[in-house]
Amino acid sequence: MSGTRVVWMVSQREFKTRMLTKANIISLVVMVVVIAIGAAVGSYFLDRDTEEPVRHVALAREVAELRPALEAAATAGALDLEITTMTADDATATLDGDDTTLDAFLDGESAAPRMLVATEPDTAVLAVVSQAVRDHATAEQIGDLGGDPTSFAAAIAQAVPHLEAVHEPEDSTFDDAAFGVSMAMISILFGALVGSGSMIAMGVVEEKTSRVVEILLSTIRPSQLLAGKVLGIGAYGLFQVLVLGGSLAVAALTLGVDALEIDVSIGSALVWLVVWFLVGYAIFAVLFGGFAALVSRQEDIGSVTTPLLFVLFVPFYTTMFLVPHDPDGTAVRVLSQIPVFAPFMMPVRGAFGALEPWEMPLSLAIAALTLPGLVWLAARVYQRGVLHTGSRMKLREALRS
Amino acid sequence: MRALHDLTFEVRSGEIFGFVGSNGAGKTTAMRIMLGVLAADSGTVRWNGAELDLDSRRRFGYMPEERGLYPKMKVGEQLRFLAGLHGMSPADAADAVERWTDRLGVGDRRNDNVESLSLGNQQRVQLAAALVHDPAVLVLDEPFSGLDPVAVDIMSDVLRERADAGVPVIFSSHQLDLVERLCDRVGIIRAGRMQALGTIDELRTTDRLQWLLEVEADPGAVLTAVHAVPGVQAHALDERPGAVLVELAAAGPGAGAAGAEQDVLRAALAVGAVRSFGPVRPTLADLFREIVSGDEAPDAVHSPDGSSGSRRTTAEAAA
């Protein structure tokens, strides 16, 4: 029987086991729900911030001549104003009722109309109405004095200062959208890497604790077992990344990315997320598997995974604090070529548009060159450790023997 | 620490080989070396004359001493997975899993997680895991421990049936009556060395024929009377007061001794009424106790062909 088939069967079992584990299903659903709630809450606040509600003002027939002035004032004040005509009785009834669609009703004399409101006047509406009445009165007076109200209005409209600055405003304003998208990306990446790494470590130790490893290794090679495990759990990790990344993308689109004028392409961000997950996973997964083989009990797992988690935490937080403020600084450029930093730094720098064309391929090549060494190291530790029982095996012991 | 010394034995096709020894004697170590789970510092394991590799080991059925199955995996799914790793096609694996779980009495638990089964049933599943891929060689480390009498009978039948089909079967056990009943050949191991190796009959044959004599008289008087017969030694048994164990010098197999026991009987009748007088052969348990309690001295192997092992761990199976 070919080794490929064995690896395939092992990986299939791993993938199926993770997919059908209740805890995994629940946590994935919870995270998708959290993203959905986040999107809903976000869109509520964004809508509230950006869109002013439409104001309704009703006019009695005797003040209908105020309409052009009201429209002009509303446009100048950037207020969405709807003007209707109504009788005083209807307006009173409407304002008295629970229906809050009407903000104000005007009647009486155009020069000094009565403004009827439910309780308190809407300040924006009051300002527009005051402006309109004043403009109307001024135009009347200009007309009475023999002037042309239209040319007066045009002259007034042009009487604004022309703005000039001595210093040009700084070009590189902080890019909120790029920051949000890239932080969401590396958070998913970090979560998926920590999750899959721990899953591999737990899987390895589970096989050792339950001693099923002895049956397995009387039939297949340790390297086949480790490879199958890494591939199966990797496939599950990729599935997680796609589900979470996809729901984030959907959330971003429903939030109205276009309205926010985000110039980050969600599609390409998702592609890079997947690419860097695969690279990061390849770097860390085998290490988690190999090191976990040093211990025989679930309680001891922490002693081998903690150093690896630390190696994940450092690049994650360094990226979070360093890159957004200085995406093309020297330190960032150098660090982002180091394989453990690259999966976090590269997508963020990409989102900020701070990458030279050669930087991404170079970091991928460096990672690809480092991988065989890491795989060799991890496979060696795994083979030595996997049948060792009892207390924790020393790393040096595993490497030497 | 050296676990095994010059341990050499051979199991033939169609033979059930019982591996016996006290705790820590090296049975499990030897079996793990056979399956390649443990690497031997020196020595070889051969099957049909060729040294074992992963491909030939795939045709072995193995039950490790420390039972091992995925606790959170369904019985049927797990056995199909293991059968697949041994090279079975999915359809064959499904058939075999059904057949063996039914036979071992866990057919109705196929869709339950292993961890939800009782220990005895987990043991049956473990046996199914060793048998499901129709192995050409069976190596079972204490397959009977933890089984109820019904399961012991089923398991005995299975082992006999596999052996009759030409499969060499090696198993270790502390249930010596079972080993005695089931095994064609037995190896008794102590401190990593094979101390006795052969068929049960061969092992039970002793240099001196032993007879148990019970006489209604003072044991001291009986001893004196029996000692008077030439070439006879006798001593009282602590565990059976009133009985005397008589040892006759075996002058060649059978012939010369035929007269001696009649002389002993006559001498005993002179002292009192003889209640019983019959030959005794040591049980496997007796042999085991003798070997295990013996001191370091007997370095020579009791093997019938007299060949002592080389400085290697060599196990051989033929099919």
From TrEMBL, chain A:
InterPro entries: ABC2_TM. This is ABC transporter permease. GO terms for cellular component: membrane. One of its GO terms (molecular function) is ABC-type transporter activity. It is found in: Membrane. Keywords: Membrane, Transmembrane, Transmembrane helix. Residues 25-379 form the ABC-2 type transporter transmembrane domain. The keyword Transmembrane applies. Pfam families: ABC2_membrane_3. It comes from Pengzhenrongella frigida. Its main location: membrane. The chain crosses the membrane at residues 23-46, 177-205, 226-257, 269-295, 307-325, 362-382. The lineage of its organism: Bacteria, Bacillati, Actinomycetota, Actinomycetes, Micrococcales.
